[in-house]
Amino acid sequence: MKLEELSTIEKAAMLSGASEWDSRGNARADIPSFVMSDGPHGVRRQLGSGDHLGLGASKPATCFPTAGTVANSWDPQLAEQMGQALGKEAHDLDVNVLLGPGMNIKRNPLCGRNFEYYSEDPQVAGRMAAGLIKGIQSNGIAACPKHFAVNSQELRRQASNSVIDERTMREIYLTAFEIAVREAHPWSIMTSYNQINGVYAHENRHLLQEILRDEWGFDGMVVSDWGGSNSAVDAVKAGGSLEMPSPGFTSTRELVGAVEAGTLAEADLNARAAEVALVAKRTKTQGVGRDDLLAESVIAEHHEVARTVAEHSSVLLKNQQGVLPLTAGTRVAVVGDMAQTARFQGSGSSKVNATREENLLDELKAIDGVEVAGFAQGYERHGAANKQLQQEAVALAANDSVDVIVAVVGLDERSESEGLDRSTMAIADAQNELVEALCATGKPVVAVLVTGSPVELPWFDHVAGLLYIGLSGQAGASAAARVLTGVVNPSGHLAETWGMQYADCPSADWYPAIGRDAIYREGPFVGYRYYETAGVPVRFPFGYGLSYATFSYSDLHVDEQGAHITVTNTSDIDGATVVQMYISGPSQGVLRPVRELKGFAKVELAAHDSTTVDIAFDRYTFRHFDVASNAWHTESGWWTIALGTDAHTMVASQEYAVAGDVEPQAPNKALGAYLHGDIKNVTDTQMAVLFGHEVLAPGKPEVFGSNDPILSWVDSRGFVARTVAKTLIKRERKIREKTGQPDLNTLFILNMPPRAMSKMTQGMVDAAMVEGIVAIANKHTFRGLGKVIAGFFRNQSANKRTAKELNHE
């Protein structure tokens, strides 16, 4: 039987999940169910019915470095190699759709999920994601890039409205997805929880139909984030294919009712069902068996892949007087709790049950030529003051048997997590004090930094060396040991800017948004685009990274194909560097940052070798989005093509005449502070010019709706609702302080709006019951309880009738 011949209710049922992780197939049309699983940096194949937050047990799988770390490699081919391994494990663990990569733009360093995202720049994010997607899908597994789109904070993540101007959205926040879609052709894509300019992502026709499908040519399945669907009918109209997890049969009945009422075209229902069926067809070779585990040979091979990725992603940030690599015979004091108990991934739905674990202390001991003179814990992992631990570390460091101190510091498990944004850019005071005390011994200190995103470094001037390993996966410790000792020459470059202090960040004054609207008032001035344009000093510029080798650049030539430059390794050691191409538009052209990355190439060179590096121009190089014509245009005139080692350091530049399709158009002077990237002083009037309309931040709601999160109930006039919110907030804080881990389930509930209850309870709650819950929030406790109780029995009866109809009983 063909898909089109199925009944309306059968096709409607295919558009929502059958369980937490499974789709609904249809045996009559030979459409199998398929399995979805988290997997940005490792397959989290959940056991049992499971949960979506990473709390339940899962099968062992390789934990690769997180996206924020892999991005520092600037190597899409390496990402593809990692993707091939991920896809292989997904196949062996009977997973059809791997939910990753995460590729949202890093708007602010405090986003709790930044470790899952690649970069502040769409070129790096898009090309790295494209590599991973190609690798995953080479195994017949569907990749699912996420979260589409304009998703930048965890606070109120299911009930936040990203308010953004169209040009910034298209050029910064969507271009990464566009590159990935056009280059790698993913078979699915996941929408974000948030609204974009007042419309939920999963029912945003502008996003899903006009841009994703019509403009970019995407032909795959659009799946909601778990619980991220608002209206099943509106989603189907807009281009949303699959609602996850299972909402029971409520959505099925809503879709059938809309078709029967003539408010939903059956053609839209057919199109969405066909998209789901296509994923089932593309991944139909699965069926290895859900009880299977990875073979030992696969575990060993992929551990080596994970180590290689971590090695190429390590970033050398300081190397005073050549303290690194550690030479043979060096006596090392290893300090830091994270040197003994490694932290190599973040918290949340991406958390992997690693097949192996390493720690830096043991790995340094295992390397010939380096003598570990001793170990000291140095600090309490979760930040509590402990002078005794610090004193023990200083005593060890000051011992005559120690030549160099290796101090492992960074953020703990509570600091970087899905569902929770960071409260500060600082690491714990106890760790900062420890590093300062170690430096005071007069011995050279090499800091190894474990964190998924930038932190403030008050002691930077005092340490001799600094190696940033990020969240480097299960083989990150051996990778770090090999870099520290020179077995591997570090070649990573930062994929995001590290500011001197959080206050310097362009969005610091309005992030995260605590109310409904998250207003992107900084416009296009994100990351280095802001720092370079406004002339704000940074700790490390975007693209920065050192090496044990040195390189020179010469003979820049620009033609219609792109930029070409000769790179020479001027040292006695083999090494790799990243050549970065930045462009600046015509002097009288539209509003732009002072420079923007438009291409890059990682090049490996043997000692004293040279090569010509070619970086091609493409559809993204010179374009800008014009809101008035709703189209992409290129300005004619003289452009500056500059090659650099980071966003601040240009080694060569050349003027190049571009024949575009429009003449340069000077920006509106009414943009004021935007003209110089002076974001901190932008007025509401100037923002209205950028956005094309007045933008006002709303006050607190007097009446709560189905899309206001539970945490907002702290302001409810109803005692019951207010007590629920306060109790949950207190509980989450207490558990986090006690365990050192974020309470993800409670955080999810706090950020969840009531309407999500009808999407996350396997059909136990429907829309009518949600109305009752909302009534309770608005001080109508008894009326609301009555609606919930009555709705429960009506919903159970309706579910039974729907199940019978689908089973043709």
Beta content: 15-25%
Please describe the biggest sheet, giving its number of strands, its sense, and whether it closes into a barrel.
6 strands, mixed
Distance between the termini: 19 Å
Task: Determine the oligomeric state from the structure.
Answer: single chain
Superfamily (CATH H level) name of the largest domain: Glycoside hydrolase family 3 C-terminal domain
Reading off the top of the CATH hierarchy, the class of the largest domain is best stated as: Alpha Beta
Structural class: alpha/beta
Task: Please report the total strand number as a whole number.
Answer: 26
Features:
809 residues, alpha/beta, TIM Barrel, Rossmann fold, Immunoglobulin-like, 4 domains, four-stranded mixed β-sheet
Topology readout:
Layout: H1 8-13, E1 36-38, H2 67-70, H3 76-92, E2 97-99, H4 122-137, E3 142-143, E4 161-163, H5 166-173, H6 175-184, E5 188-190, E6 195-196, E7 199-200, H7 205-215, E8 221-223, H8 232-238, H9 250-261, H10 266-282, H11 296-313, E9 315-319, E10 331-335, H12 337-340, H13 360-365, E11 371-376, H14 387-398, E12 404-410, H15 429-439, E13 445-450, E14 465-468, H16 476-484, E15 498-499, E16 517-519, H17 528-534, E17 538-540, E18 551-559, E19 562-569, E20 575-584, E21 596-605, E22 610-616, E23 623-626, E24 631-634, E25 637-644, E26 650-658, H18 684-691, H19 719-739, H20 744-751, H21 757-760, H22 767-777, H23 781-806
Parallel strand pairs: 1-2, 2-3, 4-6, 4-16, 5-8, 10-11, 10-12, 12-13, 13-14
Antiparallel strand pairs: 6-7, 9-14, 15-17, 18-19, 19-22, 20-21, 20-25, 23-24, 25-26
Helix pairs in contact: 3-4, 3-11, 4-6, 11-16, 14-15, 19-20, 22-23
